[in-house]
Design a protein that fits this description.
Elements: E1 2-7, E2 21-26, E3 29-33, H1 39-44, E4 55-57, H2 63-66, H3 69-78, E5 83-88, H4 92-102, E6 111-116, E7 122-124, E8 127-133, E9 141-146, E10 153-156, H5 164-170, E11 175-179, H6 194-204, E12 210-214, H7 224-232, E13 239-241, E14 247-249
Parallel strand pairs: 3-4, 4-5, 5-6, 10-11, 11-12, 12-13
Antiparallel strand pairs: 1-2, 1-14, 2-3, 7-8, 8-9, 9-10
Helix pairs in contact: 6-7
Length: 251
């Protein structure tokens, strides 16, 4: 099982990071998690390419997580693909319908299957998954993904403050990718900061093989060491910054 960070940025472009998107693979199964601006291009830089991904899992419906969704649909249609499946929080089917109302020439071009998730465990693209709602300005799900062929577990926070509930949900994962949008000097109640994340980790005692920080706003540029030190005051685990194009092997 491996995870490739296609986009580790945010709604404010830096020039170095695309918006949110991750490719999760195990054997011949591939799952795209989120599809923000630039993710389609990043996906095409992988061996899988957009032709090889027929399933998208959305954490939520903010623009920086969905803006390449119809671009992916169109690229697959033009490449001769015949299907695309999309799943996400309640309202995902309405979101896709509304996008197709605007871009109606894409409606019916490929077999499109859209699924609103309820928060109950589910299977998608060969992966077994669980969801939990995060603390954000719009309904958002974090996902815990495993594959029947491996014991590896990957958890993605989506957009969220750092909460005890979310970290308990991720406990024991091989890799947790968690929102850490701003340094401590920025006040926010919809994303995590390093101190908040470190304190929540200390409060829960949750452990992971590796913790990657993602969804990085320009405010974090040049402050990575400072942010790692802030987390390290409370948590002594392996913490790293995610980067576009980084692939990690979970075994």
């Amino acid at each position: 099982m491996k995870v490739t960070f296609l986009g580790t940025g945010s709604a404010m472009p830096t020039g170095d990071r695309f918006q949110t998107g991750l490719l999760v693979e195990s054997g011949s199964d591939q799952l795209l998690v989120d599809c923000g601006s630039g993710v389609l291009h990043a996906l095409q830089r992988t061996d899988v390419g957009y032709e090889g991904v027929d399933t998208v899992l959305l954490t939520h419906h903010h623009l920086d997580h969905v803006s390449d969704l119809l671009a992916l649909l169109k690229a697959r249609w033009l490449a001769g693909a015949d299907s695309l499946a999309v799943a996400g929080p309640p309202g995902t089917s309405t979101l896709v319908d509304d996008l197709l109302d605007v871009h109606d020439y894409l409606d019916g071009r490929i077999d499109l299957a859209v699924r609103d998730l309820t928060g109950e465990p589910f299977s998608l693209a060969g992966f077994d998954a669980r969801a939990t709602e995060t603390r954000h300005s719009k309904q958002c799900f974090a996902y815990r993904l495993t594959h029947p062929a491996t014991d590896a577990t990957f958890v993605f926070s989506g957009d969220s403050t750092a909460t005890r509930e979310l970290l308990a949900f991720a406990e024991g994962a091989d890799v947790l990718a968690h929102d850490c949008s701003y340094p401590d000097s920025v006040e926010t109640d919809t994303h995590a900061t390093p101190r908040q994340l470190g304190q929540a980790l200390a409060a829960t005692g949750a452990t992971f093989d590796r913790l990657y920080l993602t969804h990085l706003y320009p405010h974090t540029d040049g402050r990575h060491e400072e942010m790692l030190d802030s987390i390290g005051e409370y948590y002594d685990g392996d913490v790293r910054f995610a980067a576009d194009g980084l692939t990690i092997d979970l075994g």
